[in-house]
Structure formats: structure tokens, C-alpha cells
Amino acid sequence: GEVTIKRLQRRADQIRLLPRNPAYEPIIVTPDQDFAIEGVFCGLVRRE
């Protein structure tokens, strides 16, 4: 699958994965679903 950067938002009964790219929809994860976080984004360095 495709890898994108998302912000994790915890709610009482669900986890929401909010994409940084507005072209993508949020992903809602409920307690009955299995999911895994493949990595953690720490920062970005750009050279001009």
C-alpha cells in the first residue's frame, strides 16, 4: 500500500488518523479492528 503522513488523534472509543494531505480522508479505527503504525515522523529538513 501507499505510505502517507497522518496525525494520530485518540478519542474515548476510537482512534482517528488524520492525513496531512487534504486529498485523503481520515481513517477511523475502532476497538474491534487491528492496525499497526509502521513508523513515526519526527521532522523535516529542507534545503533551499
TrEMBL record:
Q: Which CDD domains match?
A: S24_LexA-like
Q: Which Pfam families match?
A: Peptidase_S24
Designated name of the protein: LexA repressor
E.C. code: 3.4.21.88
Whose protein is this, by species? Pseudomonas syringae pv. pisi str. 1704B
**This protein's UniProt keywords:** Hydrolase
**Stored PANTHER family:** LEXA REPRESSOR, LEXA REPRESSOR-RELATED
Please state every residue range assigned to the domain named Peptidase S24/S26A/S26B/S26C.
Answer: 1-41
